[in-house]
Structures are given as C-alpha cells and as structure tokens.
Amino acid sequence: MKIEINHVTRYTYAESVADSVNELRLTPRTNYRQSCFHHEVWIEPVASLFTYEDYFGNRVHSFSVSKPHRELVIKTKATVVTQDQNWDLLKRVPLEEQRELLQSERLQNRYIEYLLPTAYTEVTKELSAYAAGFEIGPDGYYDWAKQITEGIYRDFTYDPYATHVHSKVSDTLQLKRGVCQDYAHLMIAACRSIGLPARYVSGYHFVGDLQGGSADFEQASHAWVEVHVPGTGWLGFDPTNNSEVGWRYVKLGHGRDYKDIVPVKGVYRGTARQILDVTVDVRRLEG
C-alpha cells in the first residue's frame, strides 16, 4: 500500500532564542516490509542539514540555527510503500530449540541492548508478576507475544492525560492507564523480564479508512514493539491496538526505549517559555 506522511513540528518562543542545535529521526526506514521512495525535510529558518546513521541504524538529520529567531518550523514529507507480513510463511522452530537459542551466548551478545532494562523499562517485582501471568505454551514465544499484546490492550485504559513523556513502567502499572509510549515500554519490559529481546519502535499508523474515510480527527506519531522470536526474527506487535504490525504501519526507527528514538530533540539558548505544536497527516494514496 502506498502511504504519504506529512509531519509538521512548530516551536514558538516567548522571546527570541539563538544557537539552536537539533536532531531529527523522521525518515522512514526501508526494510523487508516497507520501502521509502521519497523523503523531504524543510527547516524554517533555513538551515543546512547533516545526515548520518546512529548506532541503531536510524537515519538522523541534524542542523543548527545560530541567529535569533522566535519560531522554528520543521516539515517532513514522505511516500512509503508498505505490505503485510505473511504470518503463515514465517519460519518456526520447536519451543525447546527456541529456549536454547535464547540462552545461547551468540544471541545474548548480539542483542544485549534489547535485553537489559533501562530507566523507562525497569523490571520490578510488580512487572515480573504481571509478565508471569502469561504462560509460554507449546507454540513458543510468538504465541506468548500475541498473548501479552492482547493482555495489555485488555488490562489498561488508553488515557492521554494519565501519564507524561517521562513516565516509567512502574507508573503505568500503578495507574493502569497510559498512551502508546507507555504500552510499548510495558511490553518491552515484560519481554526482557523473561529474557526475550524487545525494542521500541516509532512511526505512524494509518487509520483514515477506519474513520469513515474522514481525516477530521487528530493524528499523531505512534509507538509499538518489535520482539525477536528465536528462530524466526524480529516481529512487530502493537499493544495499543491489539494487533500485529502490517501494511498500516510505517516505521521510522527503533531503539532500546523512547529516549533512543525521539523524533525531534535539541537545545537552544534563551527563554524556556515556548509552545510546541505538532500536526501529522497520514493518508493512503491511490495506485
């Protein structure tokens, strides 16, 4: 499916600021499930862009604006072709072999970043108890990942006012509420608590046709989880919507948690009083 994304980030400052240095992680990846055919970035005030790949392979655009300014606008536009994953064709191995792979030194060395807890994904007694409520059956870790995806969707209430960008898994467990970032961190922590590599994914989720064909609803960036199923590979799961990742999802990048894949981040010199406005438009293109 061909999908177009327009993403605008606008900072408005109460007074003039200067020496703004920023990083953008807003370029869709090209992988086995999606191809990015076109991507543009505009900066106002005009700034030169420096592009590189970070440790996790995410495309980063960095820029600086030295002169005083009262507003910073970042616009990106991308065209991406996505496809569904044919789950029936996935390679599967027996549960005992999956366990042996998980315990192998080779796998643990390769994916150590996605096995260790972080500030966002700390493994507490409460988290371990929650994860233990989902049994690993004869179908192995793929089935377990589907179970916990459904469980988080069932057990927690989506509430954009309950948490904030710095909320941790312990907060989500206590409140039983959160947003996609919280749901993703919770599932990642649960996976890591049983020794299963998991990583945080940022991107977009097309739902326009599910809204009666109308785009008159607030769109936003989205977050989900990729789990490394032993013997199969990395597979995407979205606990916020209780679904496996398919053509509706456009991936920007991945990391250990949200901190590794913040879409726009930077520093500047001047007043702390600012207004942030983000608008996202995700639409399906014909043809």
UniProtKB/TrEMBL annotation:
It comes from the Bacteria. Residues 172-241 form the Transglutaminase-like domain. InterPro entries: Bac_transglu_N (IPR013589), Papain-like_cys_pep_sf (IPR038765), Transglutaminase-like (IPR002931). SUPFAM superfamilies: Cysteine proteinases (SSF54001). This is Transglutaminase family protein. The lineage of its organism: Bacteria, Bacillati, Bacillota, Bacilli, Bacillales.
